[in-house]
Amino acid sequence: MEHQNEFLGVLSGMLLLLGMHLIAGLAVFLVSFPIAALLGGGYAILIVWAFFAISIFLWQLLYVIPLIFWLRRRQRGAMVKGVIICAVLTALLNGACYLLYFSPK
């Protein structure tokens, strides 16, 4: 029974971070319009989106680290494991995409 509860905790931690990623993506989408307007409009919005997409693993640290401390304080060890697993997978996926895009052809 304990093993199943830990699995559900890890899964809920991963889903929590996935939801936070979706909220962060929506925030980037909404914030990018005024920034692009300041840069001159047109295709400037793509520059803003590309900047945030390239550096998502750095931006996720702004909400992952406080989330981990908050979950540890509430003694939710399994959820902390899920959050860390999902954060590492996000960083690895972002790093792989970065290397594919910027590697010499």
Walk me through the topology:
Blueprint: H1 2-39, H2 44-54, H3 56-59, H4 61-73, H5 77-102
Helix pairs in contact: 1-2, 1-5, 4-5
Please describe what this structure looks like:
This protein is mainly alpha-helical and 105 residues long. The chain contains five helices and no strands. The protein has helices at 2-39, 44-54, 56-59, 61-73, 77-102. The termini are far apart. The model has no long low-confidence stretch (mean pLDDT 87).
Radius of gyration: 17 Å
Per DSSP, the total helix count is 5
Low-pLDDT stretches? none
Largest sheet: none
Notable characteristics:
105 residues, 5 helices, mainly alpha, elongated
Would you summarize the structure shown here?
This protein is mostly helical.
